[in-house]
Amino acid sequence: MTPRIRTALVIGGGIAGPISAMALQQAGIEATVYEAYADTAEGKGGGMTIAPNGQDALDAIGLGDVIRPFGVPMTGIVMQDWAGRRLAEFGNPPGVAPMQLVWRTDLYGALYTETERRGIRIEHGKRLVDAVETADGITAHFADGSQATADILIGADGIRSTVRTLIDPDAPGPSYGGLISFGAQVTGTTTPSTRSKMNMSFGKQAFLGYQVLDDASGIWFVNLPHPTPMSAAEAKKTPSEEWLKLLSSKFADDRTPARELIDRTAPEDLIVVGSMENMPPRVPVWSRGRMVLVGDSAHAPSSSSGQGASLSIESAVELARCLRDLPYQEAFAAYERLRRPRVERVIKETTHKNSAKAAGPVGRVVFALMMRIFDKLAKPEKMAWVFDHRIDWDAPVN
After folding, report:
1. pLDDT computed for residue 104 by the predictor
2. Mean pLDDT for back-to-back runs of 10 residues, the chain (398 residues)
3. Which segments constitute the FAD-binding domain (predicted)?
4. Distance CA 375, CA 141 (A)
5. How far apart are CA 155 and CA 396, in angstroms?
6. Predicted pLDDT of residue 336
7. How far, CA to CA in Å, does 396 sit from each of 89, 149, 318, 393?
8. Residue 134 per-residue DSSP state
9. CB-based contact 150:323 (threshold 8 Å)
10. Which residues, at least 6 apart from 249, have a Cβ–Cβ distance to it below 8 Å?
11. Does residue 64 sit in helix, strand or coil?
């Protein structure tokens, strides 16, 4: 029999990477995380949600209480048109805990602190360029000339995954979604509290999401249609003052709080995310030999789904369970069998949302009509399968 694995290389220090390493440690496997960037991601990235299913997966490896303190409850989503008229409202199914709205920088900071506390190493400046497999293990080769060897290699390196390409040179890559994104936190806003709900408005020229708390603080994000992709680095070449002025002008004809929230934002507080990219609904190959994918490198739903981080967390925990109980080849097969149907169903259910955000004037009118019809017909309990997903860490994997 192939022996159980003892060590792992985790490529990618975003969200899925540190969580994978901590889940593996709980499964009795020593893991080291290798991150391409020379520094941490503190101060980078916008807001994101951790759904109830993601929170449950965090609880399975003792991380839930690490994340909860800085999460803001989000009990529903209200869809609006450019005039602030309600199109539809989506709440959590009955009995399901609220989603948690977090800032990516806070989540990174908490994960890195906890990873260090648990004695797991994260090495920066390690950009993977190749991986060579032998009968006894796999060796990662990095751009700085260094190497690292372990029993297996896990690709948690996002939608532009190098590991995915090493596994399958013909693997699909991300495509530009037609939008560039921005966001910020604000204080002292005059916009009324949204009562723990995220409001999302299909403006005449751009898409706005915002949530205002009872203390007059809040967050906003904008998805701006743009003809060509623009990385965060490219977008940051334009001064934040100019971006804020442009974003404000895009909502000049809208009757929503967009301009008040944007105009209240200090330039230094603007978060420039850059292009929104979409992965194809199906990545054909998740593993080969001693390499396997986890998180966005294997499955990346539209950011509009609110499930990207949560699905990554789930997959990290399930992969660790499989590797705990099975030889790696059987573990990889079991992991894919457990995860692929669920993630592909979520992607299928949500893949149309970014297209609606990038639609032109006629498309927005059609989408608004569809939303009103859907609101009358939709039943929250039909979406319970997305949120009410539980991982039993102690259950054996066969």
Report:
1. 85
2. 85 96 98 91 70 96 92 90 89 82 89 97 97 96 98 97 98 91 95 94 93 95 95 95 98 96 96 89 95 96 81 98 97 98 87 55 55 54 82 96
3. 8-349
4. 52
5. 24
6. 98
7. 40, 28, 11, 8
8. -
9. no
10. none
11. helix
- Cβ atoms of residues 17 and 313 within 8 Å: no
Alpha helices by DSSP H, listed for the chain, are 16-26, 52-60, 64-67, 104-117, 162-167, 232-235, 240-250, 258-263, 308-325, 328-350, 353-357, 361-377, 384-387
- Residue 202's nearest CA partner among 245, 255, 242, 248 is 255
Closest by CA to 359, choosing from 163, 155, 82, 132, is 82
Kindly write down the DSSP assignment for every residue of 249-294, as one continuous string: HHTTT--STHHHHHHTS-GGG-EEEEEEEE--S--S--EETTEEE-
Note whether 212 and 192 are within 8 A (CB): yes
Whether 35 and 179 have beta carbons less than 8 Å apart is answered as no
Nearest 5°: the CA angle 295, 183, 294 is 5
For residues 47 and 106, give the distance between their C-alpha atoms in angstroms, rounded to a whole number. Answer: 10
The predicted pLDDT at position 44 comes to 58
Instruction: For residues 114 and 1, give the distance between their C-alpha atoms in angstroms, rounded to a whole number.
Output: 35
Read off the tokens for 83: 């005039």
pLDDT of residue 76: 87
How far apart, in whole angstroms, are the C-alpha atoms of residue 252 and residue 272? 21
- Please choose, from the candidates 293, 294, 308, 390, the residue with its C-alpha nearest in 3D space to the C-alpha of residue 347: 308
Q: Which residue stretches of 51-203 are H helix?
A: 52-60, 64-67, 104-117, 162-167
Task: Report the pLDDT value the prediction gives residue 389, as an integer from 0 to 100.
Answer: 92
Cα of first residue to Cα of last residue in the chain, in angstroms, is 15
